[in-house]
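Researcher: Please predict.
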Amino acid sequence: MSLPFYHYLHLIGLILVFIGFGGLFSSEGAKKAMMWHGIGLVISIVSGFGMLAKLGIMGTMPVWAWIKIGLWLVLGFLPVLAKRRVIAAPLVVLIAAITGAGLAYLGYFKPAF
């Protein structure tokens, strides 16, 4: 598969992740939204590793890729904090948006640390 295909798939996965965060505000659709959140996480991680392989940097992953994996884990864990009412849902969505912006920055600019 081509690099643009993985990139497109990665974006679709992240859209699904953020659809799940939108479902935090819905009482009747929250379970289904979390399903889309999980599916989006799987799609984004698989396509992310596919892109790393296509770029030829899978064996020696740069620091920005490790940071993206850590932020991906944050995105995956935030709904749990909202469901257990550790953090209010609006704050979880704000943290998710900031995390998403950080992920986009790292993915687009690929900074050298």
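Model: The first helix runs from residue 3 to 22.
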